[in-house]
Design a protein that fits this description.
Number of strands of chain B: 6
Strand content of chain A: 5-15%
Largest sheet of chain B: 4 strands, mixed
Strand order of the largest sheet of chain A: 1-2-3
Shape of chain A: extended
Distance between the termini of chain A: 37 Å
Largest sheet of chain A: 3 strands, parallel
Order of helices and strands of chain A: HEHEHEHH
Shape of chain B: globular
Number of strands of chain A: 3
Strand content of chain B: 15-25%
Structural class of chain A: mainly alpha
Oligomer: heterodimer
Strand order of the largest sheet of chain B: 3-5-1-6
Helix content of chain A: 40-55%
Chain lengths: 122, 167
């Protein structure tokens, strides 16, 4: 999406990326970026929470209007949870305890993919 | 409230996904795009006169779609009329399914927020189409095939500014 934003901007249409994967967006480098420090899935606000949705939409519109240089990041003034920061760790969690499970899941996925490829080759 | 931390607060998805897929036995890490600069186009007119387009990474699935493996997914851009947004699907995208859900469209495609902004005179209009751009592994496909199609649709709909939302 960040690459697309760059290309759309180059085509003459101003863009603002609203996203939660700060490192990915900033590495790619986009014209304007509203960083929403939430778990992936709801960059425009918590589900059914109009207050956070309004805050984020307003932040994006204001950034469109006021940014004067590319690669401008504004962090939306929202917090996912005041008392649970564990979501940061839990996503794509890898540890010695689950390493064997993840390896088995990878093997299973490759097995199914090979089976389908073989089926299509017939 | 300030706290003292030994690591940065925000999640590095580049680091996490590299380690996660390596643990699944995939040898070659994904190469994320990196640039040192970015393009910049000033607003063509006051925001209150601009038509906003909403772009996101959901799939627009055909009727009767059956998922087996990632290769089955229609990784193609789509024009999603506002009346047909029920066909949007993000079940197969990678997001924090243990923490949240995408049952509220407004959490990634803020049409109601844009309607309110139109009513308040903050923006001029919102496009009646949503634009779907499922993420590609191939930078080349995004650059040469998918984004040009999105740009064509944006121009046909006379969109002035875009909110681009990766889930």
């Amino acid at each position: 999406m960040s690459l697309a934003a760059r290309l759309i901007e180059e085509a003459g249409i101003p863009t603002v990326v609203i996203g939660s994967a700060r490192d990915i967006v900033e590495e790619c480098a986009v014209p304007r970026f509203v960083f929403v420090d939430y778990p992936l899935g709801n960059p425009c606000g918590k589900p059914f929470d109009v207050a956070s949705q309004t805050t984020i939409a307003n932040t994006a519109l204001e950034l469109l209007e006021k940014a004067f240089a590319p690669q401008t990041t504004v962090q939306a003034p929202v917090v996912w949870s005041e008392d649970d920061d564990g979501w940061r760790e839990r996503f794509m969690y890898v540890s010695e305890e689950n390493r064997a499970t993840l390896a088995a899941a990878g093997d299973e996925r490759r097995r199914i993919q090979a089976e389908i490829r073989e089926g299509e080759g017939r | 409230m300030a706290t003292a931390r030994t690591h940065r607060s925000y999640v590095s998805y580049i680091d996490k996904s590299r380690e996660y897929y390596a643990a699944h036995g995939y040898g070659k890490p994904y190469g994320w795009l990196a640039h040192n600069d970015a393009p910049f186009t000033p607003l063509p007119k006051p925001l209150s006169e601009c038509k906003v387009g909403l772009l996101n990474t959901s799939y627009f699935l055909p009727e009767g779609f059956v998922y087996r493996v990632p290769q089955d997914l229609p990784r193609v851009p789509a024009l999603a009329p506002r009346a047909e947004l029920a066909r949007l699907n993000n079940e197969y995208l990678s997001w924090a399914k243990d923490e949240t859900h995408t049952g509220d469209l407004e959490s990634y495609l803020p049409f109601a927020q844009m309607d309110a902004a139109v009513a308040a005179g903050r923006i001029g209009a919102v496009s009646d189409n949503a634009y779907c751009l499922p993420t590609q592994f191939s930078h080349r496909k995004t650059q040469k095939r998918d984004t040009p199609q999105i740009i064509e649709w944006l121009k046909a709909d006379e969109v002035d500014v875009v909110l681009a939302v990766p889930l």
